[in-house]
């Protein structure tokens, strides 16, 4: 099975390096303009309910049925949402969080472990349903955090969380099959894809 783990197009918060998290930030004008129809035509695309993911999916896959999956939302960064590291460089809560390699609880938000667990549980349900139905393709369009959580947990070759943040408007093609998934729970990295004009496919 081919599995596409894709990230939404660029937002103003991306450009400003702000923590977006669960804030419903739209794509920027530039981000919208760069996106183009993808060269694959899935019947169904599973998306985060946030508008930046939905709008990206509508452009990349205009004929697909979009299915919102609540737990594919980006990590909730709590009080850090809407701010960037420059604005928070003297914030004691932020200093503590960064000192813990960003694994602890964001005040008012999630821990990395909680986010990873909900993301992986949602993904496993989608994948196992697709495998049981004999599907040959699964397309998920969500967030950088979604990619990082899933690829750190299941991706081969093994890499750390932050190594797996794919490009805006793109992400990763990985493969597995029923036997491999049920025995190993692994996804084999094939290539990085980008569906922005001028992007590397």
Helix content: 25-40%
Low-pLDDT stretches are: none
Distance between the termini: 19 Å
Query: Hey, roughly how much beta strand do the residues contain?
Result: 15-25%
- The coarse silhouette is globular
Strand line-up in the sheet with most strands: 3-2-4-1-6-7-5
The counted number of beta strands is: 7
Can you count the helices? 7
Round the mean pLDDT to the nearest integer and report it.
96
Please trace the helix and strand order, writing H or E for each element: EHHEHEHHEHEEHE
How does the SSE layout of this entry go?
Blueprint: E1 2-7, H1 12-15, H2 29-34, E2 44-47, H3 51-60, E3 65-68, H4 92-99, H5 112-132, E4 137-142, H6 144-154, E5 155-156, E6 170-175, H7 178-184, E7 187-194
Parallel strand pairs: 1-4, 2-3, 2-4, 5-7
Antiparallel strand pairs: 1-6, 6-7
Helix pairs in contact: 5-6
Question: How would you portray this structure in words?
Answer:
By secondary structure, the chain is an alpha/beta fold. Helices cover 33% and strands 18% of the residues. The chain is built from 7 helices and 7 strands. Strands 3-2-4-1-6-7-5 form a 7-stranded mixed sheet, with helices on both faces. The model has no long low-confidence stretch (mean pLDDT 96).
Essential attributes:
seven-stranded mixed sheet; globular; 33% helix; 201 residues; 7 strands; alpha/beta
Summarize the structure.
The protein has 201 residues and is of the alpha/beta class.
């Amino acid at each position: 099975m081919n599995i596409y783990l894709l990230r939404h197009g660029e937002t103003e918060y991306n450009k400003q390096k702000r923590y977006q998290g669960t804030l419903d930030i739209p794509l920027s004008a530039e981000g919208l303009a760069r996106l183009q129809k993808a060269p694959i035509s899935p019947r169904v695309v599973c998306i985060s309910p946030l508008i930046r993911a939905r709008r990206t999916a509508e452009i990349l896959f205009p004929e697909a049925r979009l299915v919102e999956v609540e737990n594919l939302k980006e990590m909730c960064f709590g009080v850090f949402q809407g701010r960037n590291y420059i604005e928070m460089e003297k914030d004691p809560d932020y200093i503590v969080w960064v000192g813990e390699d960003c694994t602890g609880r964001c005040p008012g938000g999630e821990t990395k472990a909680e986010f990873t667990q909900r993301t992986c549980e949602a993904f496993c349900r989608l994948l196992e349903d697709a495998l049981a139905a004999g599907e040959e393709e699964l397309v998920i369009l969500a967030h950088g955090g979604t990619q990082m959580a899933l690829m750190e947990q299941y991706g081969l070759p093994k890499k750390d969380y932050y190594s797996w943040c794919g490009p805006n408007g793109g992400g990763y093609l990985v493969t597995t099959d029923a036997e491999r998934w049920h025995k190993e729970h692994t996804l084999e990295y094939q290539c990085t894809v980008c569906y922005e004009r001028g992007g590397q496919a």
